[in-house]
Amino acid sequence: MPNSYTTLWTNDLCRYLERSGHAGARLTMLFGGPHLSLPSFERAGVRPGDTIHPVRAYRTRLHVLGAMEVSRIIPYKEAGELLADEDYAKLLDWRALKAGGGVTEVLLGPPGSPLSFDTVVPADLLARLTYTSRRGERRLKHVEDGRLMRSGSVHGIYRLAPDSAAELRELVLDRSR
């Protein structure tokens, strides 16, 4: 059964993507690596068929930016050999997501949802948003009165519990209808 994950994008990256005209573009690839600033999707357990939801913590709110289903994961060093010309052009278009280098993997997918920077996770969902791992389930830390006071508990790549995944998916689908 496919899983869903969140990955935190920095505010600097989101501002750059907004300014460079990426708002409304459909996600087709993501990048991962060995560093905290660009964590590994493979190490987090992401597999083809899974869905990735980029999120942003901004002004005590959690924003869901979109969704992309993963069709394949390839080594970054082999991207030039493995990608068709039109996919390689997409790699260049989304290069801002590489966050300063250290890239070791490329996640490819069919066009996902349009990238949007204004979809706020509602306070009631924020309070019950749940992640799951081998150690069990956990809710977000530092949520007070429907506000995310610190983003540490979403920094990285984390697997969503099925109910939370369905609710984030619905937020993204509602926005793109």
In short:
This protein is an alpha+beta fold and 177 residues long.
Strand-helix topology:
Elements lengths: L3 E5 L2 H9 L9 E4 L18 E8 L2 E4 L3 E2 L2 E4 L3 H4 L2 H9 L11 E4 L14 H6 L1 E4 L2 E4 L3 E2 L2 E2 L8 E3 L2 H15 L1
Parallel strand pairs: 1-3
Antiparallel strand pairs: 1-12, 2-7, 3-4, 3-5, 6-7, 8-9, 10-11
Structural notes for this entry:
Helix content is 24%, strand content 26%. It has helices at residues 11-19, 79-82, 85-93, 123-128, 162-176; strands spanning 4-8, 29-32, 51-58, 61-64, 68-69, 72-75, 105-108, 130-133, 136-139, 143-144, 147-148, 157-159. The relative contact order is 0.24. A hairpin with a 2-residue loop joins strand 3 and strand 4 (61-64). It starts with a strand and ends with a helix. It has one domain (4-176): ph1033 like fold, CATH 3.10.590. The protein has 5 helices and 12 strands. The strands form 4 sheets. Strands 1, 3, 4, 5 and 12 form a 5-stranded mixed beta sheet that branches. The protein has a 3-stranded antiparallel beta sheet with strand order 2-7-6, with no helix packed on it. A two-stranded antiparallel sheet has the order 8-9.
Helix content: 10-25%
**Name of the CATH class:** Alpha Beta
Mean pLDDT over all positions: 92
Question: Care to count the β-strands?
Answer: 12
Provide the number of structural domains.
Answer: 1
Structural class: alpha+beta
List the defining traits of the structure above:
5-stranded mixed sheet, 5 helices, 12 strands, 26% strand, alpha+beta, ph1033 like fold, 3-stranded antiparallel sheet, 177 residues
